[in-house]
Amino acid sequence: MSVVEMPSILGDLWAPMPSEWLSEPPPPREWLLVQTKDQAEDLGVLPRNVVGMLASAGGVGKTMLVCQLALLVASGCARPFVGDLVVAPEAQGGRVLLVVGEEDAAEIRRRVYNAALALRLTPEQRERAIAN
Question: What pTM was computed for the model?
């Protein structure tokens, strides 16, 4: 009877750490939201291109908050999001994937429509949001 060796899954993915990781500063973090008011430098909130999670008790407005954030990013609208947080200039007008798992299509349509009304998006900003 011969012994069959199983391939090493991690062995195929392993690579040595690049030397510049220890010798050169990393690139600056890109933020989705920044707080600029009364700050010596921008204070970032929610890194760009990283999965995040918004959690709280039910019925407090998470879906509306996320719909408004999605519309602000996609439309390129520079108005404040919450308090003195604004969408970072580099993220304004960016592509957005809004995934909502608890509402049906009619409910999410109502929420997106109401979010656009609350944000007072211009016709041009609405067109940009649709495109993105």
Answer: 0.78
